[in-house]
Task: inverse folding
């Protein structure tokens, strides 16, 4: 008998089809097409058979270049069934970058389709197959249909098997390929269930990109729980609130920009909605307050690719009582705040370090000091209060050294956001011949650069006041909702802008 610690021994859909075959597994929001776990199991078999004919499946890597669609989930479980690794790639990248990432993962096959098909055609050196995006489950072109498929023998899984390789957003450095094991994914899904709860009627809406962990995790969770995942091809404030209502959605993963747009569109959440898992970046106090006023069950969360999604999550009651916290760490996640190599006392700021079964075994090309005595070094600065709640305040590399003085970019950004006319702000350091670095700010809101500086003069030390301020319509963000700091620097470096103030 296998040790229970090695569970699962087969892919999650195979386990689920054995126990609750007639429950709804997946729904395509655009068409309303739905499949049961019995039908999804057959579709996974068909796709696995098609992949198996093209590659030596055991230990192979299947890369995907697909927009958000149900096919992604089917491919995930098909590779799990074969014992292969899935490497979902960002459809917003250029062909040269994608070629580099395909080489990094040593891909055996590239699966593409829909709007990404032409991009895949520009990438040479890798065999490409396409999926039929019109189906609520994926079939690989030229393979047998679901009805005519030949059952594939499921690979025997180990928790240490690499199931996913996902590239980080690369907002402050080059994207890194993160290895996530079967054990990482299952531990993350179990921990999430302990914090958010699970009901047999749950339906989790996916409208985030499925080449990031926030878009992929609900497929794993739903298969583990025996609940349904509803897949919407792209977020739209009007369409998404209609999907939530029509499909009886009980949970949804969003980034702050998406939630703001829903509220701006007048969204009133239905009583069936149990949680809005809000990640991908810090949620402002004003956004949390709007959720409280509108009855949105918001759950601010802190997580990252390297931990297979959530690290800490606040339930709505915590979010409303203590705006700004992401709550206590989830079960299994051992979070330590470290300064000068030593654990911090409650209230003391330091780097957030995470250990536990959700943490990646490492990057594709070495770890580069990412792991220390207390676990994985997130690069985020924060603290834990006396009750263990986590507060994340910025990045280690947000430190700006200007004229010999240390400036915390997150402190400056928070001061700017305090202005009632400011919607959002990002602060970075730019090279400066005189100062070494100069403090600069990209600001969203109906406000002038001079007014931003005047506001900061009253609240910050002179060396902390931004020397360059630009006003923009929005902050550049990655598909996962994180502020793209490289793009912020590029915008602030641009000369001759009419709304720029430099001193």
Result:
């Amino acid at each position: 008998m296998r040790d229970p610690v090695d569970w699962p021994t087969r892919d999650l859909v195979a386990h689920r089809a054995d126990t609750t075959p007639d429950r709804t597994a997946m729904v395509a929001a655009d068409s309303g097409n739905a499949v049961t776990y019995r039908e999804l199991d057959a579709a996974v078999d068909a796709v696995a058979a098609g992949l198996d004919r093209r590659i030596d499946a055991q230990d192979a890597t299947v890369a995907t270049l697909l927009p958000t669609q149900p096919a992604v989930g089917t491919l995930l479980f098909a590779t799990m069934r074969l014992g292969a690794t899935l490497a979902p790639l960002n459809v917003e990248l250029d062909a040269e970058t994608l070629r580099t990432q395909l080489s990094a993962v040593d891909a055996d096959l590239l699966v593409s389709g829909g709007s990404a098909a032409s991009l895949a055609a520009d990438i040479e050196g890798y065999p490409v197959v396409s999926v039929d995006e019109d189906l609520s489950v994926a079939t690989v072109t030229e393979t047998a249909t679901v009805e005519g498929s030949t059952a594939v023998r499921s690979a025997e899984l180990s928790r240490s098997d690499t199931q996913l390789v996902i590239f980080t957003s690369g907002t402050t450095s080059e994207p890194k390929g993160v290895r996530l094991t079967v054990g990482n994914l299952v531990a993350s899904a179990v921990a999430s269930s302990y914090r958010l709860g699970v009901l047999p009627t749950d339906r989790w809406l996916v409208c985030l990109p499925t080449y990031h962990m926030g878009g992929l995790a609900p497929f794993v969770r739903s298969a583990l729980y025996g609940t349904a995942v509803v897949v919407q091809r792209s977020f739209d404030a009007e369409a998404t609130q209609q999907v939530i209502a029509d499909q009886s959605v009980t949970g949804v993963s969003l980034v702050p920009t998406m939630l703001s747009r829903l509220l701006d569109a007048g969204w009133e959440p239905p009583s069936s909605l149990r949680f809005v898992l809000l990640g991908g970046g810090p949620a402002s106090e004003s956004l949390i307050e709007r959720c409280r006023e509108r009855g949105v069950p918001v759950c601010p969360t802190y997580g990252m690719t390297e931990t297979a999604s959530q690290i800490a999550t606040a339930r709505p009651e915590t979010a409303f009582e203590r705006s700004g916290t992401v709550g206590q760490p989830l079960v299994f996640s051992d979070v330590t705040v470290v300064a000068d190599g030593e654990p911090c006392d409650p209230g003391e700021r330091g780097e957030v370090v995470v250990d536990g079964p959700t943490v990646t075994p490492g990057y594709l090309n070495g770890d580069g000091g990412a792991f220390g005595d207390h676990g994985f070094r997130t690069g985020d600065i924060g603290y834990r209060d006396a009750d263990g709640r986590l507060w994340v305040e910025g990045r280690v590399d947000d430190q700006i050294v200007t004229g010999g003085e240390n400036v915390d970019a997150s402190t400056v950004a928070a001061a700017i956001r305090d202005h009632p006319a400011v919607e959002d702000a990002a602060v970075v350091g730019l090279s400066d011949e005189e100062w070494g670095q100069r403090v600069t700010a990209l600001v969203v809101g109906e406000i002038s650069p001079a007014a931003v500086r005047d506001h900061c003069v009253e609240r910050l030390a002179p060396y902390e006041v931004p020397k360059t301020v630009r006003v923009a319509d929005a902050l550049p963000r990655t598909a996962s909702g994180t502020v793209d700091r490289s793009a912020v620097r590029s915008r602030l470096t641009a000369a001759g802008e009419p709304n720029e103030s430099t001193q």
User: Anything to note?
Assistant: The mean pLDDT is 90. The CA atoms of residues 46 and 149 lie 5 Å apart. Residues 37-52 form the longest helix (16 residues).
